Amino acid sequence: MRGKGKVICLLLSVICSCCLLFISINSVHAENPEQAKYDSSTIKSSDLNKEDWEKQKDNYQYVKEGEKKKKIEKEDTLDKKKKDVSNWNFDMDTNVARTVLISLVIGVLILVIVLLLRKSNWIFNKKVNDKNFLIARLEENLPESDIDPHLSKAINEKDFRLAFRLYYLLLIQQLALQKHVAWRKEKTNGEYLIECSTKNYYESFAKLTLAFDQVWYGEYTLNKISFDDYQNEFKSILQQINQPS
């Protein structure tokens, strides 16, 4: 029933619309008799024959309204596509530029971090740890350790602080090998000094021991001139230790 009611309402709407249209036309004709007369008049064919028409039509350009509208719509569509492509290219260029900029910023940050790490205490501490590891390895079995290659390398690299430390290890090693001291890993430098208190090189040994504490534990920086002076002291005392008694 509801479906039929809708159909009836639709039909009534169409009928009413037609009636209104008919009434409007009649009222226009009633108000304008000339218009009604023209609408009811019979159109007579023109005296212009086909041959004259063919001659005259070349002087005029006729564009059908539908074709003109389609042409305008086509032009509007093309303009819209061009705008869309331009906007898409602009968005794409903007995204590419943003990506490149972000990549450059990240690259610069990484470079700065790497440079800072190279000069930071972290790198320095790594080198210190490597040195400490070398010393600990040599001290593990000092009488049998080969110190000379490491000493030569430190001197060539101008790492005078490490070279001083290795010289002092070499001194203790030679004292142990020549039976001037009884070597034990746990013994202190002071204990070695006491064992050598009656030796003629004692003063030199004491001087180098004091300097060793300042250079290694006090992290005293050695220049080449100071190191050369200490190196002469080490060579002198090593020569005395290795002399036949």
Topology record:
Elements: H1 2-31, H2 33-40, H3 50-56, H4 65-119, H5 121-140, H6 148-156, H7 160-177, H8 189-195, H9 202-217, H10 224-241
Describe this structure in words.
The protein is rod-shaped. With 245 residues, it is mostly helical. The longest helix has 55 residues. It is built from ten helices and no strands. Helix 6 packs antiparallel against helix 7. Among the domains are: 49 residues; 120 residues, no CATH class.
Short structural description:
The protein has 245 residues and is an all-alpha fold.
Integer-rounded radius of gyration: 55 Å
Number of strands: 0
- The percent range for strand residues is under 5%
Taking the sheet with the most strands, its summary is: none
What is the end-to-end distance?
A: 136 Å
The H/E string reads HHHHHHHHHH
What oligomeric arrangement do these chains adopt? Answer: single chain
Q: Looking at the structure, what is the overall shape?
A: rod-shaped
Question: What features would you highlight for this structure?
Answer:
single chain; 245 residues; mainly alpha; 10 helices; rod-shaped
